Amino acid sequence: MKNDLHHRMMVTQSRFYRAITHKTRKKGLKPGQPKVLEFLLENDGCTQKEIGRGCVLDKSTVTGLLFRMAETGLLVREEGEADRRESRIRLTARGKELAHEVKAICHSVDEKAWTGVPAGEREAFLRVLVQIGRNLAETDEPGEEV
């Protein structure tokens, strides 16, 4: 089991999650919020549906996260220009500040993870990881929200 891909991926993901969550909790962020902040830093003004796809979260999870983040002043919803039913999600000044802090935290965890791994192997690993992700995305059910 220790050399099974799914096991290695679960263990590694858990360690990443713990390392990042430990640091982002000190900033007052709840689980799920850091990835939304990081996504919005690069995609400010996107829709809730785009956040769900980009963060690989289901609709109800995104709804709850965005509600709590708006309550704490990290983001605002703006009515869409073309379609008023589809609001745009934007970071507030405080949200942008925290998003940059999250990005720095994630970068530091990435650097720790890459310790001792040569640059060429990093690139090869990322190519393989992207392909694995694509392979698994093919197993998603049509119309699935994540």
From TrEMBL:
Keyword line: DNA-binding, Transcription, Transcription regulation
- PANTHER family for this protein: TRANSCRIPTIONAL REGULATOR, MARR, TRANSCRIPTIONAL REPRESSOR OF EMRAB OPERON
Q: Which InterPro entries match?
A: HTH_MarR-typ, Tscrpt_reg_MarR-type_CS, WH-like_DNA-bd_sf, WH_DNA-bd_sf
* Protein's recorded name: MarR family winged helix-turn-helix transcriptional regulator
Q: Where is the HTH marR-type domain?
A: 2-134
Under the heading Pfam families, the entry gives: MarR_2 (PF12802)
What GO terms are given for molecular function? DNA binding; DNA-binding transcription factor activity
